[in-house]
Structure formats: C-alpha cells, structure tokens
Design a protein that fits this description.
globular; single chain; 93 residues; mainly alpha
Length: 93
C-alpha cells in the first residue's frame, strides 16, 4: 500500500499541469528548447524532492512517461519527424 495521501494526487496533478503549460506554450511563443527543457527539469526536480519521503515509485514512473511522450511529440512536431524516424534517431550509433 502506498503512503501517498489524496492531496498528494492533487499536487501531482498540478505538476502535470505545469509541465503541460510549458509544453503548450512552446507552440504559441517561440520558446527556446534549452529554456523549456531547463524549466521542465526544474519542475520535475522540485516534485521529486517533494515526494522523496513517500513511496512514490508508481507516481514518478507515470510522471516520467508523461513527460517523455510530451517531449517526443514536441520534437516530432517541431522537426516533422515520424515515429519511425524518432526510433532510428534514438537507437542509431
């Protein structure tokens, strides 16, 4: 059983919301990749620090998956790449 409280789920939803806002603003404003990734990293580090005293492996795994797919979709959209091209890019030497 997890030691996460119901209000922790609300706070985690706020984290998802913050990451989504950064992602959404990328298309509207010509936000630099470096600045956006630094901001996403700051958000993730702060939430990892918040949850470090709880059993939050599943929560952090869900957050990791969410952020990973948002960044991949962002790269695919920005560079007009297909999923096959992304896989080649990530696997290739």
């Amino acid at each position: 059983m997890s030691s996460e409280q119901p209000d922790d789920f609300k706070r985690l939803a706020d984290c998802f919301g913050l990451v989504f806002l950064v992602y959404r603003n990328l298309g509207r404003m010509d936000l630099d990749y470096k600045i956006a990734l630094i901001r996403i990293n700051q958000i993730l580090r702060s939430w990892a620090n918040y949850f470090k005293h709880a059993v939050a492996k599943h929560t952090m795994a869900r957050l990791h998956t969410f952020v990973w797919w948002r960044v991949i979709r962002w790269v695919m959209h920005r560079h007009r790449m297909t999923w096959t091209a992304i896989r080649r890019w990530l696997r290739g030497p």
